[in-house]
Amino acid sequence: MIDTACVRDRLKAHAPLLLGGLILAALPILGGAYAQRVFTLAGIYALMVIGYQLIFGHAGAFSLAQGAFFGLGAYAAGIAAVHFGWAFPLTFALAIAFPLAVAALVAIPVLRLESHYFALATLGLAESAWLVGTNWAAVTGGANGLAGVPPIVIAGWTVARGWPLLLFVWCLVAIGGAMASARTRGLTGLSYRLVRERPLAAASVGIDGGRLRTLAFIASAGYAGAAGALFAHSLGVVSPDTLAFPVMVSCLTMAVIGGRARIAGAILGAVLLIHLPEWLRGLEAYYLIAYGAAALAVVIAAPDGIIGAIERLRPKRPIATPDAVGRPRRAAPPTGDRSRESESPILRLDGVSKSFGGVRAVDGVSLTVLRGEILGLIGPNGSGKTTLVNLLTGLYRADSGRIRFDDHDVTGRLAFDIARLGMSRSFQAPELIEEASLLDNVAAGDRGRSEHPPLIRGLSIEDRRLGEARAHAFDMLVRFAMAARANDAARTLGPALRRRAEIARALMSGPRLLVLDEPSAGSSSEEAAELAAILSDVAREGVTVLVIDHNLPFLARFATRLACLEVGRLIADGAPADVRAHPRVVEAYLGRPDGAA
Amino acid sequence: MATLAAQLLLNALALGSAYALVALGFVLVINAVGAVNFAHGDLVMAGGFVSIALAQVAPDAGFFLLPLVLIAMAALGLLFSAIAYFPLRSRPPVAVFISTIATGIMLQNGANALFGAAPRAGPAIAGKGMIAIEGLLLDRQSLAIIAAAAILIGGCHLVFTRTRTGRRLRATAEDPELARLSGIPVPGMIALTFALATALAGTAGLLLSNQYFVTPDEGMALMLKAYIAVVIGGWGRLGGALLGAVIIALFEVVVATLLSQPMAEGLLYAALLGILLVRPQGLFGEALGRRA
């Protein structure tokens, strides 16, 4: 529904951006030829920064290779044009394809690395590119670079310097921005956010974080290459400076100052920082120091950049509207293969062991979970319960033994892969996106529709998918009796609700087996009772539940079977009453009354 | 031939000693704060220029430049941590990456503005020329570099193992949270770690400046070498990093002699990518585990 008030609100909300855009556009209009040249350069940088936001802002990987990809693009275009006489459309395509291919090649070794490794490995890549550029003189022109790169000519039409080139570059910025936006907004954007901030949680609902990061890395290289080609053709020369670290520094500074994950941030950052030397010309040699100081100041004072700071000033529109409550709930969660609900095992562990250093955390555990049951796994602290969960959900790799889930051998498979087979989990310390709303935290579990995003997707489709995921998530919140908090940021939730949010998110991915790590910790006994009722309800719909907890009264409310671990070994397994009366279980809990945890 | 080989080996050891100082400071900071200091190489460069400036004031200081540079750079390290680390202590490591890069740019361009972009030769700490030992002619400066690095690394080892402050520094590096609970003033220890790491980096700058010159933009390459040393030696392991530094220097000197200097550096980065592909935990392994 669009009404005029809504349009007015939107205009008001975007007013600072519109105003800023007008002021920026005035720069080349009021200035002369020189101002147009500077503004064209800003557009080229904006294109590189939009690409950089994919890997840095969305995938959350701190790449230091974007500057090198820019240089590789510039050289690819320059060499193809100067040595081989290629026309612009071809040099442009090559300038995108070459860094893209390099990125795809190095993505395999570098992307699985942790953040600091990744950053430094990409820096190594950048330094190698610079060495090749300066030393392979026969092809690159060495330290002198390549001169005589022709201007852009498309089908006989020469894009002259000045206004035509400026508009051409900024049209490409608009196209690039729209493409990047289509791939990173909506539900996919939410998946990226989960991968970036809570990678374990992302894997637990079946999001392949490695794939998202690889795609972002490769795409970012393509953007940098395109920018490099425009740079080479508009300046007419390619020098080793295009491969040198200052390009990367500029790109990073622009993304940090403008904003890491917003197209407007990329544009604002590029325009500001390209003009900064002009405005700071009085400082002469010291202007780069001012550059560094500005970046430092923004990192400290405005972690989300200028655009982030502006967005924070705006009032937030609530995403979950109260009228959604009245809507009939969608029948069942997308799960529950009831027809197969029988005495056949859904999960089978065979002699599974795991050691850390010299400590056997899990020692030859064999255990089966039957379809449709609620198995409670108890055991004192340090008995290996969480390790066992991490083993069967693929976070750890077992030293020995096999794990079968449904009809699949999942021993040694990756966490996201196991989750896609239909096993989802919660964590002992909830893994929530602290700044996101409760609703979005739960909606992020809706992986089913975020798979395989097509290369270019319409903006509206992405938003619709997110809308559907949110509606589904809202139903889930109603079911977990926490819909009233839907719009609150996760960090404001108490411990009991944080755990419920995780369980709700896990259910969003439509699991057949739900594995819960201490879901009642931090809950009052009323809250625990309410949770037990909800979980019984979930199980009745056909979801098998494996729940780890200390809290025996809580488990006694709904578990259909109990098993007990002690120092990594299974010491009891059977009907709840039998296990609770088992002498070794009593011994393991000795000195503590039942359920004290 | 024997003289040439001995001279080469000595050069490699001297270079490796200086790299070892760089790598040691780099690892100390990583362990203490869980983040990479991207300005570490720029601090080495700053040490080189500080040495040049000090040598202008005291031209005959010789070996006594060493303590002067240590003190000046320790002070710079404290200032550095106050600007680039402490305001961002509660933020994710990436914020520290960016702030150290930004501070590095300020150092680099500050040096550029004050001293110019051209390479400058720093002061020699033990005079110029050769000395004859057992019939071999050996470069005095190289020997001095090795001696100075040995003294500093030995000194660090003594501090870490024999003093209360050293044990507290180690406890902070191993587990800051546990250290805090045991009553160790963690922020103070972190500031001290930055001072020590910067002092070591600065000394490396002094030691390298005479034979290898100083240029304002050399920081990134130096930081990368420290990083490669750490990758070879196993992330976070002090001994491994020192060994890695010597291996890098040997590789660099030998390949540069046989082929060329750019070739040596290029192959080093290629080797880095190769190691990361085959053994992401480092050549000598890393204790695996989730970093919270």
Question: Can you walk through the features of this model?
Answer:
The complex is a heterodimer of chains A (597) and B (292). Chain A contains 23 helices and twelve strands. In chain B, helix 2 packs across helix 8 and helix 5 packs across helix 6. The C terminus of chain B is likely disordered. Helices cover 74% and strands 3% of the residues of chain B. The interface between A and B is large, with 41 and 46 residues.
Strand-helix topology:
The complex is a heterodimer of chains A (597) and B (292).
Chain A: H1 4-30, H2 33-58, H3 66-84, H4 88-111, H5 115-135, H6 137-140, E1 153-154, E2 157-158, H7 163-184, H8 186-197, H9 199-204, H10 209-235, H11 245-258, H12 263-279, H13 287-301, H14 305-313, E3 345-356, E4 359-370, E5 374-378, H15 385-392, E6 400-405, E7 408-409, H16 415-420, E8 423-425, H17 438-443, H18 459-479, H19 495-508, E9 513-517, H20 525-540, E10 544-548, H21 552-558, E11 561-566, E12 569-574, H22 576-581, H23 583-588
Parallel strand pairs in A: 5-10, 5-11, 8-9, 9-10
Antiparallel strand pairs in A: 1-2, 3-4, 3-6, 6-7, 11-12
Helix pairs in contact in A: 1-2, 2-7, 2-10, 2-11, 2-12, 3-4, 3-5, 3-10, 3-11, 4-10, 8-18, 11-12, 11-13, 11-14, 12-14, 18-19, 20-21
Chain B: H1 2-33, H2 40-57, H3 65-85, H4 93-115, E1 130-133, E2 136-139, H5 140-162, H6 164-174, H7 176-181, H8 186-212, H9 219-233, H10 238-258, H11 261-278
Antiparallel strand pairs in B: 1-2
Helix pairs in contact in B: 1-5, 1-6, 1-8, 1-9, 1-10, 2-3, 2-4, 2-8, 2-9, 3-4, 3-8, 5-6, 5-8, 6-8, 9-10, 10-11
